[in-house]
C-alpha cells in the first residue's frame, strides 16, 4: 500500500525527540494517522547500529558510511588558530541514538530550572524522566524509572581499567559515587552507565524503542525514510503540511522532486539542532532580512532562528597502558583474529560479550576548588560568579576514560592505549547556522563558534591537567602518547614522557631501534614504578600557553548540539513558547534539542528523549488525547528460555 498524502500529524525528522513524539502519539490513539519523515535510512535490523562496540565506525567519512552528515565551519576561525571545525550529525532513523557513543548521563536539576519556563522545571519533568527509562542498575535514589522503553545498564562488560581510573581519581580528590546521574551530584566519579540492554546486549536506540515497537502492533504510524523535508507548507500562517525531496539529488538535471503531504492537525519539526532551523528558514520562518536575501516570503519574522548554537567541547589525550591491559585497540585496528573472536562472542552470548559495551566504563564530573579557581584567570572567574557559584549541582567539566585509543589507528604506533576525554559542559561561546538558498540540497552557512569566548580555555586547560594526573596514578599507565598531547618545550618539567622502555621492549622484542638515544627526539621513559608516590606536575606560563594552543588546534564537538530555536520570549530572540509552538504560526511545533534556551550539562541523548516526552504530552493535550503508559513492548526484548541468543532479535 502506498502512503497516504494526508495524515493527522506529521513529524519531520526521526531523531530521539521525533521518534518519541511519533511513537507515543500513534500508540495513544490507533485512529490517529501519524507520519514520521526521516532524511536518513531505516535503522531496523542494521547490525552496524545494534552492536554497541562498533560505534566508532559511524564516524568514518569515506563515501560509504552515510549514517552521519558532516557540517564544516564555512569560515576559518581565528579562535581556532585558523582551523575550520567539523560537527558530525546523525543521518539515520533514530538520529543520534543510532550512532552515538551510548554514554548515559543526565542534566543537573538547575539546568532545567534555568529554562525559566512554567512546566519545564526539574521537579515537573521528573515523572517524564522516569517514564522513559528501563533502568537496569541498582540505585539508592528515586529518580530513575523501570518500565520505560529505553534500557540503561553497564553493558556486557567493564574493563579493569575503569576500576584503576576510579582509584586514581580518588587520589586526586574526586570521590567515588554510586550514582552521579541523580540530578544533583556535581563532583565525583562513577562507573558510567550505557544505553545498552543488558538482556540482549543491544544498543537502546529511540527508533527501536518508540517507533518499531508501535509499527509491530498497529498500522497508523507511517514511516518515510531517505526523505528530506524541504519546507513546511502554510496557508497564511497555519501549517498544513510539508514538502519533502529524495535524500540525494539524483533526479533528471538536478530538478527538485518534491512530494507534498498534508497534515490535518499538526506539523512537528524535529530535525535536530542543525536541521530544524534550516527547515524553518526554507519555510519562511526566520529573520525577515535573510528571507529577503534568499528570495523567500516571510511567514513569521523570527531573527532568533539559527542563532545561539551551542555544543559541549572536547579535547582528548591518549596514554599508553600495559600490554596486560584489556583494551579494544586490536579490534579497532582491524586484527582479523581478534575481530572474529569478538564478533563470534557477541553472536553466541551478546548479553555478556565484550562488544556489548562502548569501552567507556568510567568517568567523573568536577568543580574547581578555591585554589584551582584562582589559577583559572579573570574571564572564567567572571563566568563562575555569574553561572556556577550559586548552583552547586552544576559540574564545570566531565571526564571519561575509553579503554582504547579513540583515534585513527593507522596513524598510531603499535601498543595498547587509553583515551581521556575532557568535556566542557557549559561553554560561553556561541555559533550559528543559516540557509544560503531555498534549495534543500545547498550547504548552509555554519559557524560552530567554538572557543569564541576566552572564558572557555581555562576549564579545559584545568581538566587536561587533572586527567593527566589521574592517568599517571593508574597501575596500567605506561607513558604519554606524546603526539596526542600539548607540545611542551622539551626542557620543561611538564614535557610528556612517552612509552617506558620495558613496555617498548615488550611490544617490539626484536626491534633494533628500541632504546636508542638520539637527544630529546628518541628517548623512552624510565621503567614504570607502581610504588611511586606522585607529586602534581608544575606548569609554567609557557606550558599553559602550549596547552591553550593545543586546545585551539584540537578542540572538537561532543556532538551535543543545541539551542538554535530557543524556547524563550519572542522579544529576547525566542522561537518557540513554553508549549513549543513556533511564534507567529499555528499548528506548528519544534520538538528537539534546538529548543533549549541554555546549555544542559550532560551527554544529551537523555535530554533529547525528555524533550520528546514533553513534546508528546503537549501535542496530546492539544489534540485532546491521552498517552498510553507503559509504551508498546520493545521488539528485541529477550525471549526467556531455550532460544539461542541470535534468535532473540524479535
Ligand atoms: C556521534 C555522536 C555521538 C554521541 N554520543 C552521545 C552519547 O554517548 N551519549 C549521549 O547521551 N548523547 C550522545 N550524542 C548526542 C545525542 O545523540 C543527541 O543529542 C540526540 O540524538 C539529539 O536528538 P535530536 O532529536 O535533537 O536530534 P538528532 O539526533 O540530530 O535527530 C535529528 C534527525 O532528523 C533528521 N533530519 C535532519 N534534517 C532533516 C530533514 N530536512 N528532513 C528529514 N529528516 C531530517 C536527521 O537525519 C536525524 O535523524 C551523540 C551524538 C552523535 C552524533
* Helical segment count: 17
- The CATH class assignment of the domain at 1-102 and 204-309 and 433-451 and 561-650 is Alpha Beta
Work out the helicity level: 25-40%
Instruction: Identify every distinct bound molecule in the structure, by name, code or SMILES.
Output: flavin-adenine dinucleotide
Describe the overall structure.
This protein has a domain at 1-102 and 204-309 and 433-451 and 561-650: FAD/NAD(P)-binding domain, CATH 3.50.50. The relative contact order is 0.19. It is α/β, with parallel strands linked by helices and 650 residues long.
List strands and helices in order, with pairings:
Blueprint: E1 6-12, H1 16-28, E2 34-37, H2 47-50, E3 68-72, E4 86-90, H3 96-99, E5 103-104, H4 109-113, H5 122-131, E6 133-135, E7 150-152, H6 160-171, E8 188-191, E9 193-194, H7 206-215, E10 221-224, E11 227-235, E12 238-246, E13 259-269, H8 272-282, E14 285-286, H9 288-294, E15 300-301, E16 313-321, H10 329-333, H11 336-348, E17 362-366, H12 370-374, H13 377-388, E18 397-402, E19 416-424, E20 432-434, E21 445-447, H14 457-472, E22 477-480, H15 501-507, H16 541-554, E23 556-557, E24 588-590, H17 605-623
Parallel strand pairs: 1-2, 1-13, 2-10, 6-7, 13-24, 14-15
Antiparallel strand pairs: 3-4, 5-9, 8-17, 11-12, 12-13, 16-19, 16-22, 16-23, 17-18, 18-19, 20-21
The structure holds flavin-adenine dinucleotide (FAD).
